[in-house]
């Protein structure tokens, strides 16, 4: 049976690990807090007491954690996955990490004989749980071919952007554009409310107008209703992605990246206000009465 270590069982990783169980893989799981693994263990996953124990002797290692710091910890920290992985293991980093981190981690893992695949994803937690993610791949073509059996359970679409790091470049620009759109719709709706417009009519016009995108349509409804239930993507993660996009822009663009900086500033405030709640809460900051802003 094909063996796989899955590390990081948050909103996204939990569903992704379940996909491998459903596909018949022998799955070892590790998460910083064990409670999130209980139902996966009941479905047949083996609990590992560390990333290293999960990775020991396995064919592939998949990680889905919050950020660079978490990725570094689970791969390269004490009892990290890299310490126990055998040469030739597929190393699939699905977390959204910075471009520099993706390159550094790839160099470190390749130095140990692992096959590194840069594989951030788009899609919400429901897509993660149903195998309908889009994978944004940076890898050598031959490495990608070898990794395909480990990608298939997760994805309905696989986009190969180029060598390691290329998937992360696309992921960061994708989420930067999302951050700017969401911040824009929060400000636009707050202005419309303040001006006393009929918000039902505003939502109808937004959803059918030229500025409509799936992102704008989804968030405008939730923001107008102040419905932040079932958080899919937190303010802290959106801030992290925008900050990584600024670092990338500073590396690749001459001159100051203005929109990226504005997005970081907006989400720094949202993160300070409610880090673990839905990113759409940004509207509560921009629509606060004067003097009450975070
Ligand atoms: P989440 O629910 O907040 O889960 C974060 C995961 O990272 C948890 O397993 C958490 O462990 C772990 N973690 C955090 N800090 C850690 C550390 N220092 N050491 C070890 N583990 C650590 O986040 P998510 O929504 O699943 O997102 C996971 C990744 O996918 C992020 O990179 C995010 O940007 C990306 N992403 C998310 C979405 C989305 O819609 N949510 C979509 C596409 C991509 P604990 O459970 O112990 O806290």
Description:
The protein is α/β, with parallel strands linked by helices and 294 residues long. It folds into 2 domains: 3-163, Rossmann fold, CATH 3.40.50.720; 169-286, N-(1-d-carboxylethyl)-l-norvaline Dehydrogenase, domain 2. 51% of the residues lie in helices and 14% in strands. The chain contains 13 helices and 9 strands. The protein has helices at residues 11-22, 38-42, 51-55, 68-76, 99-111, 125-129, 141-151, 166-194, 199-208, 214-225, 235-252, 258-273, 282-286, and strands at residues 3-7, 26-30, 46-47, 60-63, 90-93, 115-118, 121-122, 133-138, 155-162. The protein has a 6-stranded parallel beta sheet with strand order 3-2-1-4-5-6, sandwiched between helices. Strands 7-8-9 form a 3-stranded mixed beta sheet. Helix 8 (166-194) crosses helix 10 (214-225), helix 8 crosses helix 12 (258-273) and helix 9 (199-208) packs antiparallel against helix 10 (214-225). The chain is globular, with a radius of gyration of 20 Å. The N and C termini lie far apart (53 Å). The structure holds NADP nicotinamide-adenine-dinucleotide phosphate. Residues 8-13, 31-33, 36, 64-66, 69-70, 73-74, 95-96, 121-122, 124-125, 232-233, 237, 241 line the site of NADP nicotinamide-adenine-dinucleotide phosphate.
